[in-house]
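Hi everyone,

Forwarding the result from last night's run.
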Amino acid sequence: MDVMTEYYDALDRLSKNTPIRVSRGSKISKDTVALEAGRGRGSIKKSRTQFLDLIESIERAAAKQKGGSDGDENSLRDDVRKYRDLYEAALVREVSLLVELTAVRAELAKANSAAIKVVK
């Protein structure tokens, strides 16, 4: 297997949070990719031109990993807000219907108690 393929496979495993050599949840960096690929820490260097594309991929994956947790948290907050608003709207509808039901029952009781004249 090609060395670069091993690095890219390691980056893929880290991105999917399924590493085999480093602990799950590890931050994606040049060092963790190197360790996950079975290489030494510091083996991926900017000074080596063959690593330039790999380093760009690592930086994108690291930014996505960092943004992903914040994005998930923001998404959860948005969901909480959305369902709180739906809950409050449902409560308003319930109270409105109870007020209307009370008024209708009062009218019905008033109509039943009124004297009804039967015309022959």
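DSSP finds three helices and no strands in the chain.

Cheers,
N.
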